[in-house]
Structures are given as C-alpha cells and as structure tokens.
Design brief:
Helix content: over 70%
Number of strands: 0
Distance between the termini: 72 Å
Oligomer: single chain
Shape: rod-shaped
C-alpha cells in the first residue's frame, strides 16, 4: 500500500516539475522572439527616420525650405 502511494506521489511530483520546466522554456522562447521582433521594428524605424532626414536635407539644400523650417522639421522627426 505504501509503495502505491509513494509511486503515485512521485508521478504527480514529476509531472508538476515537467510542467514547470516546459512553461519556463516557453516563456524564454517567447521573450527571445519578442526581442527579435522588437529589434526588427527598431531597425525599420531607424531606416524610416534616416530616409525622412535625407529627404528633408535635400529640400533644404535645394532651397525649397528655409533653415528655420529645416530645423523645425528635423526636431519634429527626431522627437
């Protein structure tokens, strides 16, 4: 009788430990995937900002906008 109780409790405890291990691994994988996703979005945002600043600089160099307008627009893009 005692061996049945011991085996049953051992199986339950092992199942719980496995459950916790799987949950921890899933949480780690989700965090890693989110980090990679956020890095991709950050790269896209940086590229977008760079492109906007290049366009703004071209407008300024061509004389289409004044230096004051250039500075205002640049500040707006960077903030």
């Amino acid at each position: 009788m005692q061996s049945i109780i011991f085996i049953t409790l051992s199986v339950i405890i092992m199942g719980f430990v496995l459950f916790l291990g799987v949950k921890a691994i899933q949480k780690g994988l989700n965090a890693k995937n989110n980090k990679e996703f956020n890095q991709e979005k950050s790269d896209e945002l940086n590229n977008s900002i760079s492109e906007e600043l290049e366009k703004l600089n071209e407008l300024f160099k061509s004389g289409a906008i004044s230096e004051e307008d250039f500075q205002k627009a640049k500040k707006k893009i960077l903030d």
